[in-house]
Inverse folding.
C-alpha cells in the first residue's frame, strides 16, 4: 500500500531526509576519532558510507512506496545503520536504523517490514548482550517501537481509504437511485399525460373522419388540452407532496380518477377505513402506481371498466386496481415490462410491497405500505 502523495509533499520529504543525512554526516565527520583509516575507525567509516548511500537511495527512490528498489534501500539502511551503532553507539547516528524501521512498517507488507525490522532489532539486541550495553538495548527497543508506529500509521491510512471508498460507493448508489427516481417520474408524468393526449387526438381524428361533427372533435381536443394541464399540475403536486412531507392520498386519487373519467375512461373509486394523511414518499408511490395501472388499462383495454380501491387499516394502507381485460389482450401485455418494473421499484424504495397478475378475467395490481 503505497502512499506517494503530491509532488510538493514528496519534495518536502526528500528535503527533510537530505537534511537529516547531512546533519548525521557532519556530526560523525566532525568528531575526532569517530571515523578514520585504521581498525574500528575504518570499519565505522565503511558502515557510515553504506548507511549514507542506502539512505540517499531511499530518499531518491521514494521516499514513500513499496517497490523492490525501495525495500532494498530501506533494508540496507536499517542493517548498515544497526551495524554502525555496534561500532559507534551514538544517538547522532541512531536515526539510520530508527527511521528505516518506521518506513518499513509504514510502506511495506507484513513479511518485508517484519524481516527488515527483525534484522535491525536482532543486530542491536545481540550487540547489547555481547557488549553488555544498555544503550544498544534501548536502541533495539526504540527501533521496534518505530516499526509499530509505522504499522499503526499504515492501518490508519488503510482505514481512511476504505472509508473514502465506502463513501464514494454510497454516493454512487445514491446517484443511481436518484437517476432511477427521475426516470420513473419522467415515465409517470410525461408518459401518462402523453398517453391520454394521444387517445383524445385519435378520438378526434376518428370523429372527424366518421361524422365530420366539429363539436365532437372540439370536445376531444378540449379534453386533450385539459390532460396537458393536468400533467403539469401532477408534476407540481409531486414536488409539493415531497416537500411538505404529508399528503391526503384519498383526495389525490379521487382527483386522478375524476380526471380519467372526464377523459372518457370508465373507472370507479372506493375508499374503505378511515382516511388519514400519509408521509409524502409512500403517498406519492401509491399515487404513481394507481396512475400507471390506469394508464396501462386505457392503453391495452380501452373502453373496459377499471376499479380503484383504497383501504386504510390500523397499520397499513393498501391499494388495489382491477381492470377488465378484452379477450384479445394477454395478461402480460397490460402490465408492460417497464411499467411493472417501475411500480415495483417505486414501492420497494418506500419499504412497501407490490404484486401484479391475472385475477380471473381481470388484471389486478396491488400495493401496500405501512402507515
Amino acid at each position: 500500500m503505497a502512499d506517494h502523495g503530491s509532488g510538493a509533499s514528496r519534495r518536502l520529504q526528500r528535503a527533510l531526509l537530505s537534511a537529516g543525512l547531512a546533519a548525521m554526516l557532519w556530526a560523525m565527520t566532525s568528531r575526532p576519532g569517530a571515523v578514520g583509516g585504521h581498525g574500528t575507525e575504518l570499519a565505522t567509516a565503511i558502515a557510515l558510507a553504506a548507511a549514507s548511500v542506502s539512505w540517499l537511495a531511499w530518499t531518491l527512490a521514494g521516499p514513500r512506496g513499496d517497490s523492490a528498489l525501495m525495500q532494498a534501500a530501506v533494508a540496507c539502511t536499517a542493517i548498515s545503520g544497526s551495524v554502525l551503532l555496534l561500532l559507534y553507539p551514538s544517538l547522532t547516528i541512531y536515526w539510520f536504523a530508527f527511521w528505516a524501521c518506521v518506513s518499513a512498517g509504514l510502506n511495506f507488507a507484513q513479511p518485508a517490514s517484519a524481516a527488515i525490522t527483525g534484522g535491525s532489532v536482532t543486530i542491536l539486541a545481540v550487540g547489547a548482550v555481547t557488549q553488555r550495553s544498555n544503550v544498544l538495548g534501548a536502541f533495539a527497543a526504540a527501533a521496534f517501537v518505530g516499526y509499530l508506529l509505522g504499522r499503526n500509521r499504515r492501518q490508519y491510512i488503510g482505514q481512511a481509504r476504505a472509508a473514502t471508498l465506502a463513501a464514494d460507493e454510497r454516493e454512487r448508489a445514491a446517484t443511481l437511485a436518484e437517476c432511477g427516481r427521475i426516470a420513473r417520474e419522467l415515465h409517470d408524468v410525461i408518459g401518462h399525460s402523453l398517453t391520454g393526449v394521444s387517445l383524445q387526438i385519435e378520438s378526434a381524428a376518428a370523429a372527424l373522419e366518421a361524422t365530420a361533427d366539429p363539436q365532437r372533435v372540439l370536445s376531444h381536443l378540449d379534453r386533450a388540452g385539459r390532460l396537458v394541464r393536468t400533467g403539469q399540475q401532477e408534476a407540481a403536486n409531486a414536488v409539493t407532496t415531497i416537500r411538505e412531507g404529508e399528503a391526503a392520498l384519498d383526495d389525490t386519487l379521487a382527483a386522478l380518477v375524476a380526471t380519467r373519467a372526464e377523459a372518457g375512461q370508465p373507472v370507479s373509486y372506493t375508499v374503505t377505513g378511515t382516511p388519514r394523511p400519509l408521509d409524502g414518499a409512500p403517498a406519492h408511490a401509491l399515487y404513481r402506481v394507481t396512475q400507471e395501472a390506469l394508464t396501462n388499462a386505457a392503453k391495452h383495454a380501452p373502453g373496459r371498466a377499471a376499479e380503484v380501491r383504497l383501504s386504510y387499516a390500523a397499520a397499513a394502507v393498501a391499494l388495489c386496481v382491477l381492470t377488465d381485460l378484452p379477450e384479445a389482450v394477454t395478461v402480460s401485455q397490460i402490465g408492460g415490462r417497464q411499467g411493472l418494473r417501475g411500480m415495483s421499484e417505486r414501492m420497494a424504495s418506500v419499504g412497501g410491497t407490490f404484486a401484479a397478475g391475472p385475477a380471473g378475467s381481470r388484471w389486478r395490481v396491488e400495493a401496500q405500505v405501512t402507515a
